[in-house]
Write a structure and sequence with these properties.
Helix 15 (440-453) crosses helix 16 (463-480). This protein has 25 helices and 10 strands. By secondary structure, the chain is an alpha+beta fold. The chain folds into 3 domains: 1-43 and 173-354, Multidrug efflux transporter AcrB transmembrane domain (Multidrug efflux transporter AcrB transmembrane fold); 67-162, Alpha-Beta Plaits (2-Layer Sandwich); 360-392 and 567-759, Multidrug efflux transporter AcrB transmembrane fold, CATH 1.20.1640.10. Strands 2-3-1-4 form a 4-stranded antiparallel beta sheet, sandwiched between helices. Strands 7-8-6-9 form a 4-stranded antiparallel beta sheet, sandwiched between helices. It has a two-stranded parallel ribbon with strand order 5-10.
């Protein structure tokens, strides 16, 4: 790898404009393909293999029209008015909504008394969409929203919910994200002391983001891109892109200050810092790619797109950055430093990089080495309280119940709860199969039911009217006969505990399958609702309710789907942690030829993860500090995504700090000296890198999407704890206490492990 990087550095030094031209050509090509193949990200989440998703697939096969998205328009009559008195306004709005593209049907609340509350002041209209969930055009959603807002008056409140809400983030990068980048630029300027040098990492990060985003959207026709996926890719690409370029630029400048020529310094910087960047990037890529083991499509897409963003950021850092450094020449230094570089280059290069004794990092390391037990205990006393709330972690998916208080979907949720009960927001769709085929007895029963419903209506007197009525009766009989057996089952389902209502919705022509809409008595996230779902899925329930061994139930709907997704993600988190932790130990054993160093690093990573989860629970679940607009369960996939990202970044800091200790110990066999020197050489750049990462991720806390806010917050806190408390306090303290035993490894294992140089190669031999 070192020789390849030396060759790459030599090429970039001799042909910088050609190297940049290649990247610009790649970017231009991807921009063109994006223009042709761009497809907007979707907001729907599905997990193949779950019972709810299987039921959705079966419903789609049996009832194609039922597979589209649905929404609700909720009304409340104000100031003593009733829904009936507002009928003209309501029907006028619904007629306008029915004209929108993507709307296949609008069911007025005046078609059935069940759509109007007993109090008479709350009602809802059902809106059926022609496309699948999340596929309705954003323009149509915006138009429906505007019409609903315009219909609000002193006597009528109008709110919308369901798939009529645009759940796609309105912006990918906003003011907060820009502020984070601005802080990163300030940190770079302080660290590197030159505006041009500080601009290099930002420029390369932007090139990397441009390439990764256009590549992602070029594939949007063949892969399903979720609303959060591009934001995560930008978040990661920006943060690591800046960091990787900082590591290489800092090493390049330090070599020039030691007296190396510009070409030699570039080759050595890429052979050492560039090598570490490649290895660090590989760890993040592996961690994010490992999300495929969870076997959830949208998370696989998120993980692979994030991994791709990291890979491109690393490639840009080891190719485009050297070209930019070559073009910038001495301008990456201040005027004073340029004179110093010219002076030291006349005297020849020095092999040993000196450490200033008046720096904060030097003084910090001195204190840690003198009092390792105290610093270890202080570090643990800081992390453990932050981590404690993690034991109350509750996972869920975004629902209207936990939307912002002033949002229309939350208001719609509250109105439906007030008018129809809390369970009305947790409807279950039960697919019933195995019913007996339609019989003549069913047709007779259907005919009697229809005649009972029409009792009291005027009797036709003319032969023509009688014939028309008879024809209508036959048609209705044919329509409702297939539902007779389904209605019997629905009646029995309605008698189950925790069921408020069960209605037969539709059936196949032969009557052997149908759909029952079940309204629980409890809320979507209530444990009793989950118990009801499990009870309905039990084969014994279907048999007992129907009296037929051949009858089966499948349960789906948004509530059942969320339950299954939560369970699968909750079960996947421990598996993923085992994979990541196992990977961490293997990589570090190979890198540092040690047993205790990997164990120490992995335990430190777990501390950082627990602290990240604890802070996430306190702020986004409990509502501390008012950052979250609507505190509630943590979105199910955030812990897994954040764990994967934090693992990769934590290993970055581990490598950049401990590799210096390993290199020094290999030369001197002095354990205490190796800890001190390795820490002092790596602490400055790790501090700058961590502050940059924290600033970039913290900027996403101000995003309008709650999921993105939570991811940004989690990673900002995770890196803060991992970099400054775990890696720069606990790690050197533990390494000091371990002494030489830190570098012990069984001889038989040492012989069998491949040799990988994390420190890279300085000479291109």
């Amino acid at each position: 790898m070192g020789q390849f990087l030396h060759l790459l550095a030599r090429t970039a030094y001799k042909h910088p404009w050609r190297v940049l031209a290649v990247w610009l050509l790649i970017l231009a090509t991807l921009i063109t393909t994006t223009a042709f193949f761009f497809k907007a990200p979707g907001s729907s989440i599905s997990i193949p293999g779950t019972p709810a998703q299987q039921a959705i697939d079966h419903v789609g096969d049996l009832f194609p029209a039922a597979g589209g998205g649905t929404g609700r328009i909720v009304f409340k009559a104000e100031n003593g008015e009733t829904i009936v008195s507002q009928r003209e306004k309501i029907e006028s709005l619904l007629a306008e909504v029915a004209k929108e593209d993507g709307v296949s049907q609008v069911v007025s609340p005046f078609l059935s008394s069940t759509f109007i509350s007993e109090s008479g002041d709350i009602a809802y209209a059902q809106v059926q969409l022609s496309g699948t969930v999340g596929s309705i055009d954003e323009g149509s959603i915006a138009s429906i929203t505007n019409k609903a807002e315009a219909a609000n008056s002193e006597t009528l409140q109008v709110e919308i919910a369901g798939d009529l809400i645009n759940k796609t983030p309105g912006e990918i990068v906003g003011v907060g994200e820009i502020a984070g980048v601005a802080i990163a630029l300030v940190v770079l300027l302080i660290t590197l002391g030159s505006l041009i040098a500080a601009g290099m990492p930002l420029l390369t990060a932007l090139i990397g983001i441009g390439v990764s985003m256009t590549a992602l959207f070029s594939l949007s026709q063949v892969i399903e891109i979720g609303a959060t996926t591009p934001v995560l890719a930008i978040m990661l690409g920006l943060a690591v892109g800046i960091d990787y370029a900082l590591f290489i630029t800092n090493k390049y400048r330090s070599l020039l200050l030691l007296g190396y020529s510009y070409e030699e310094a570039l080759k050595r910087a890429l052979g050492t810092a560039g090598n570490a960047v490649v290895f660090a990037a590989i760890t993040v890529i592996i961690a994010l790619s490992a999300l495929t083991v969870v076997n959830i499509p949208f998370m696989t897409t998120m993980g692979l797109s994030g991994a791709g963003s990291i890979a491109i950021a690393a490639l840009v850092a080891i190719s485009a950055l050297p070209a930019l450094l070559r073009i910038a020449g001495p301008k990456i230094f201040s005027r004073k430093q340029r004179l110093l570089v010219e002076k030291v280059q006349k005297h020849g290069a020095e092999k040993i990089e000196h450490v200033a004794h008046n720096t904060l990092w030097y003084k910090w390391s001195e204190q840690i080495i003198k009092r390792p037990i105290i610093f270890l205990l202080v570090g643990l006393l800081i992390v453990i309280p932050i981590a404690l709330p993690a034991q109350d972690l509750k996972l869920g998916l975004p629902t209207d119940q936990y939307a912002a208080t002033e949002s229309t979907e939350r208001k719609a949720y509250d109105l439906l709860t007030e008018g129809f009960g809390v369970g009305f927001n947790a409807p279950l769709t039960v697919l019933v199969q195995g019913l007996p085929k339609v019989t003549e007895a069913d047709k007779v029963a259907a005919r009697q039911f229809i005649m009972q419903q029409s009792a009291g209506q005027p009797v036709p007197t003319t032969p023509a009217a009688q014939q028309a009525a008879f024809a209508q009766l036959n048609a209705l009989t044919e329509q409702y006969a297939p539902q007779v057996q389904l209605m019997k089952v629905a009646t029995e389902v309605g008698k189950l505990n925790d069921v408020q209502q069960a209605l037969a919705a539709t059936a196949t022509k032969d009557g052997t399958a149908g759909i029952i809409q079940v309204i629980p008595k409890t809320a979507p996230i209530d444990a009793k609702t989950n118990d009801l779902i499990e009870r309905l899925r039990d084969t014994a329930t279907a048999e007992n309710v129907s009296g037929n061994k051949n009858v089966t139930f499948e349960v789906t709907g948004s509530t059942a789907l969320q339950k299954d997704i939560n369970e699968k993600l909750s079960n996947a988190l421990p598996v993923y942690l085992i994979v990541v932790v196992g990977l961490s130990i293997i990589l570090l054993i190979i890198a540092f030829r040690s047993i205790l160093v990997p164990l120490k690093a992995t335990l430190g990573f777990l501390l950082s993860v627990l602290a990240m989860f604890g802070a996430l629970v306190a702020v986004f679940q409990w509502g501390w500090f008012g950052i979250a607009e609507a505190p509630g369960p943590i979105v199910s996939f955030i812990p897994i995504i954040a764990t994967g990202v934090l693992f990769g970044l934590a290993m970055d800091y581990e490598f950049f700090l401990v590799s210096g200790m390993h290199e020094e110990y290999t030369k001197t066999k002095d354990a205490k000296r190796s800890v001190a020197r390795g820490f002092r050489l790596g602490a400055k750049v790790v501090t700058a890198a961590a502050i940059i990462m924290i600033s970039v991720f913290a900027g996403f806390i101000f995003n309008h999407d709650a999921t993105i806010q939570a991811i940004g917050f989690a990673l900002a806190v995770g890196i803060l704890v991992d970099a400054f408390i775990v890696r720069m306090t606990i790690v050197p303290a533990v390494m000091t206490l371990l002494g030489k035993s830190a570098w012990w490894i069984p001889k038989w294992l040492d012989k069998r492990l491949p040799h990988v140089s994390i420190e890279g190669e300085e000479d291109d031999k």
